[in-house]
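Let's practice the habit of predicting before peeking. Look at the sequence and jot down your guess about where helices and strands might fall. Then scroll down.
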Amino acid sequence: MELILFKVGLVVVLFLISLLIAAYSTYAERKVAAFMQDRIGPNRAGPIGILQPLADGLKMFMKEDIIPQNANRFLFILGPAISMATALMTSAVIPWGPDLNLFGTTVSLQVADINIGILYIMGVLSLGVYGIMIGGWASNNKYSILGSIRASTQMISYELAMGMSIVAVIMTTGSLSISQMVSSQEGSFGMGWNVFYQPLGFLIFLVCAFAETNRTPFDLPECETELVGGYHTEYSSMKLGFYLFSEYVNMFISSAIIASLFFGGYNFPYMQVVQENTSQILFAVICTGVFLAKILFFVFFFMWVRWTIPRFRFDQLMDLGWKVLLPLSILNMLITGFFILLNN
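Done guessing? Here is the structure:
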């Protein structure tokens, strides 16, 4: 019973943290944009605008919920629900810290330690495209359907290169479990990170993560200059909020996956020394804090790129995915296999 209560509490905490970080990512993005453009950014809702996400959330709740007359009502509601649900589900298999011994039982800071964790994440992320596609089609709007078609083709195309880059990590780790992938990077005084062994795989995965989350320079599905707002043109109130929130949750989870697969997860330099000189709970808190710091760095990187690099044309986007990243990911996989064979 204690284990069940702990897992339920962990689910609730992860749910709240994901929503909180997604909410304050909108604030952070505006502050980062303001800094890069020599502006102030939000500064009226609370000290230095810290309450701006709460004001935005209240605005979303208070806005009129409009459903177009010719829209498919059921699918129009289902679309944002699928996007939000799939975005939140992916955090279940990510290890947020080392195992703890509570009530005489060893528990992991991970909702579900399944032996095919990375396949679960890829499967759930691939379902997210249905939320966008259904929402765009159900809107009965030409801009929405064009945006959803762009999103689906883009996400499906870049999933191939992303999957191939992960295969190389699986080959070096020998496991599909994310917790084992993280624990395998403990070597070299906590610095046996996969990014040093798979730099090309990391670069491919990073670019594909931008495309999968529809972030600049791959934000063509919601390109304002061409498609008004893309697949969520007809949405308002919290349905629009779900689409916008799911993008930031996906950005947070993508950063967590990048940190787990390539940057050691909660591992950090000389962590064994820290573990020997601190209590178990304090050590778990430190590890979780280090992991969150890595995630927040990549969230900042997502924002930095948005306000630095211009948007691709759609033909350039598809060429990059099919003609550059996919061959490179296959080459990286072959090189990894060659070195594994050489070492054996």
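How did you do? The chain has 14 helices and two strands.
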